[in-house]
Amino acid sequence: MTVNYGSKRIVVGAHYGLRDWLGQRVTAALMALFTVLILARIIFSKGPLGYEGWSGIFSSQWMKALTFVIIIALLYHVWVGMRDIWMDYIKPVWLRLSLHVFTLVWLIACAGWSIQVLWRL
Amino acid sequence: MSDPTTIATKTNRPEFRNINAFKDLPGYRWPLASLVSGMHRISGAIMFFLMPFIIWMFDSSISSEISFSKFKAAFNNGMLGLPGVLWKLIALALIWAYLQHFIAGLRHLWMDTHHDATSQEFGRSTAALTLAASIGLTLLLGAKLFGIY
């Protein structure tokens, strides 16, 4: 029988596993860079950081667009992570499906709220 | 039968077929690497469930001067009938969760991209480093949050 594992394996299927695995890591890297950016802007702001300084970080249009991307990245990242937790610990299918639906509703509602906050500024 | 590999597997190791949360889990050993792995899930789940509070903080701190003062008052005078110190503790839990998840996440990314990083020794030493850094920074920021310095 021909070898069908490791680097020799025949890659077939819908690739959902790889896509989610890679997506979780790419979004993680984006969020990590964003964290460093926010920290840098806080550290290099002059004087104590009051309302003006804090909201000023997010007031420019490019920063809003970037933060929007990070919100979507977070949504996807948390979806993969929470889905992994439910898949590992919750066995009854009806309960797992319900928790998946709850997770999606929770995350999309949170994303909507934070996007509204962003562009109301 | 005298094959050394079969002898090695004959030692009395516990065998788990159906893991019982109450009978088996308390007996688990928690090497540092698995402790960090478990904490990655716990910290992620904490941030997931507290997400509305995180967005409330983002909303109130950023929207206007008035909402900003409400944001500060929640931690100084309390909110929703709960004392300010409790809100500070929740914020501290989030600070810990974020630091733990962030540092352990960097460790994950490093292990995903470096073959030599997947040894037992590397796993153990970086897990210890992750815990020390996240707990140390949490204590530092917690002291700031509670006005110790």
What's a quick, concise take on this entry?
Chain A has 121 residues and is mostly helical. Chain A has four helices and no strands.
Based on secondary structure, the structural category of chain A is mainly alpha
Give the helices and strands of chain B as they follow along the chain.
HHHHHH
Mean pLDDT of chain B: 87
CA gyration radius of chain B, whole angstroms: 22 Å
Cα distance spanning the termini of chain B: 68 Å
Tally of domains of chain A = 1
Which regions of chain B contain 5 or more consecutive residues with pLDDT less than 50?
none
Report the structural category of chain B. mainly alpha
The CATH topology of chain A, please?
3 helical TM bundles of succinate and fumarate reductases
Gyration radius of chain A, rounded: 20 Å
Portion in strands of chain B: under 5%
Instruction: Please give the share of residues in helix of chain B.
Output: over 70%
Oligomeric description of these chains: heterodimer
Task: Measure the end-to-end span of chain A.
Answer: 64 Å
Number of helices of chain A: 4
Number of continuous helical runs of chain B? 6
Mean pLDDT of chain A: 90
Give the tally of β-strands of chain A: 0
CATH homologous group name of chain B: Fumarate reductase/succinate dehydrogenase, transmembrane subunit
List the helices and strands and how they pair.
The complex is a heterodimer of chains A (121) and B (149).
Chain A: H1 16-43, H2 51-57, H3 61-89, H4 93-120
Chain B: H1 4-9, H2 32-49, H3 51-63, H4 65-76, H5 84-113, H6 120-145
Helix pairs in contact in B: 2-5, 2-6, 3-4, 4-5, 5-6
